[in-house]
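Protein record
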Amino acid sequence: VQLQASGGGLVQAGGSLRLSCAASGNIVSINRMGWYRQAPGKQRELVAFITSGGSTNYAGSVTGRFTISRDNAKNTVYLQMNSLKPEDTAVYYCNADSRFISLVQGVVRSQTFWGQGTQVTVSS
């Protein structure tokens, strides 16, 4: 399973960006999909996640500004980021808790996969 993230960039404070992350491969199903971020010198932290049923959870620092959504038919998760602040600057990573077909073993396995990260920079 591969996750491809896109949509990062440079934006001024108060601006908006929309991140996308598409999963592909021998996917049987995806339960939780999420976004994490890691700023320089800091640990990776959860931004938001969404379950296959649409339940969401947000970090307190982004509540009311960010919205996570997903398209189950496309195995894609989105993060709409509004009212961006300089402290939102980080590399954003998507992940997915996926059940997939292992071609080597010929069975269904479960694993969490990560995307490659996309840089978000918010200037003051």
Observations:
- The CA atoms of residues 93 and 116 lie 7 Å apart.
